[in-house]
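User: Hey, quick favor. My workstation is busy. Could you predict this chain's structure for me?
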Amino acid sequence: MSLIVFFFGDRILLIPIWALLFLFYVLTITPPPEVENKITKFGIETAGVTLRWESLSHYYFTMRFGFHVLTIVGHAPYYYHVYMVVPNEEIKKSLMIILSEHLVYQEKPQRSLTDKMVDWLSKLIPDEESELSQKEVEHPEEPTTSTQVSASKPQPASL
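Assistant: No problem, here it is.
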């Protein structure tokens, strides 16, 4: 792409193209930081920030890429959101018990335009489970033994 732009004489366009490539490279190479989350009697500590119970409004769970994601929403005027990946069902149940003492649980949250766009874009990315089921439909294999092997989901980092 750079060569095409260079030969057509728009050399100034090379700078934004290379900047985008560098940004893409940096964002894909850099691993996410390890974040420790704590629930205390004052509130929730996440990424070095303490969110007091008084400033938090409600919470809900969503499912993204095979993982439960806990979303905690703050009060007006900011309505900030805190997202935490929950590794398994047992931790999710214990979180619901602890958080329900301080916050309101919403079964179906109100989704903003941004949430709807993220959901639509995430549907475009194929999930590992859907890829496996499509392969089984395209190439059904007769199981020769009575045991079947199930695909394991990747586990998130520990909290």
